[in-house]
Amino acid sequence: MNYPEYLKVGDTIGICAPSDGIADEVKIRKLELAEKQLTELGYKVIETDHVRTSIKGRSADAETRAKEFMDLYLNDEVKLIICATGGDFMLEMIPYINFELLKTAKPKWVQGYSDVTSIIFLLTSILDIPTMHAQTIKDYAMRPLFKNLTDALDLMSGKEVVQYSFEKYEKEWQDTTYENMEDQYNMTEPVEWKNLNGEEKISVSGRLLGGNIEIIKDIIGTKYDHINKYISRHKEDGIIWFIDIFELTTPELIRTFFVFKNSGYLDNCKGIIIGRPLFLREDYEINLKEALKVSLSDTNIPVIFDADIGHVSPQFSLINGSYVDIFSSEGKGYIKTYLK
Fold first, then answer.
1. CATH number of the domain enclosing 330
2. Residues 176 and 194 reside in one and the same domain
3. Which of 40, 287, 307, 330 is most buried, by the most CB atoms less than 10 A from its CB?
4. Are residues 221 and 195 in the same domain?
5. The pLDDT of residue 175 is above 90
């Protein structure tokens, strides 16, 4: 893996909007508070031109978004790129990303999740550059920063981090207001990791690959699909897929794993860990557990679900491409990350 230089105090963090931007007045204030807090932590912060623009779900046209991302990536002063927010249209800019040029550039940390999977998944699977699957910029307005946010900064700083399952999670997204924008997550529901086949414990090690499954399924079969090559390059380590589900129906999830299995994406897979879906429609009265059993029971791959990954906060900060140990037992678990 081509690890970026470790982040240190005094480094410059670049904010860009390769999907949607932030145009709402309240959310802009939250953005400013996040940048202020990062500055107080000792970092320099810069923005690209269209971070504070949103037109029909896009910060700018696809070519402009790609150029602003590339400009940050090729700026030697910038050590970390944090994306402004997610959205729906980031894949539009991918044809304008010069992967051949990025291959020769110094690797750089890129952070985000949801629609940002479009770029971080490709940087990892095509170029073997580890990327940070973690919160976008606005969460850094929180005071004090919750552990998942400091974990992201610590991991990119080269620190050894073990992330233990949280005690509770946030059931619903909270609308941002001027009164709550510095609040921590509103965690009300008990966390319970589940082992799909009722195993007393699951313990697996391997190299992480994954992100938002809705984005990954749209990459499959395109010219940007280098998944099999990535799996082959890391066959000695084995692959652990981590899956974030934003909104799918259970039949869509079953069909997606059908494609995974029959395209070789689960070859040499040591385990699968799946987050709590934000919106999951249980068509035909098929729930998440049943959909996973129908899809994966014939693979003999250990599967953990309802883990602290993805759109339901707080989420673990995961380095896509890192080597990890994952353990799950009696509703709790942990992920230990090795920067190798």
1. 3.50.30.60
2. yes
3. 307
4. yes
5. no
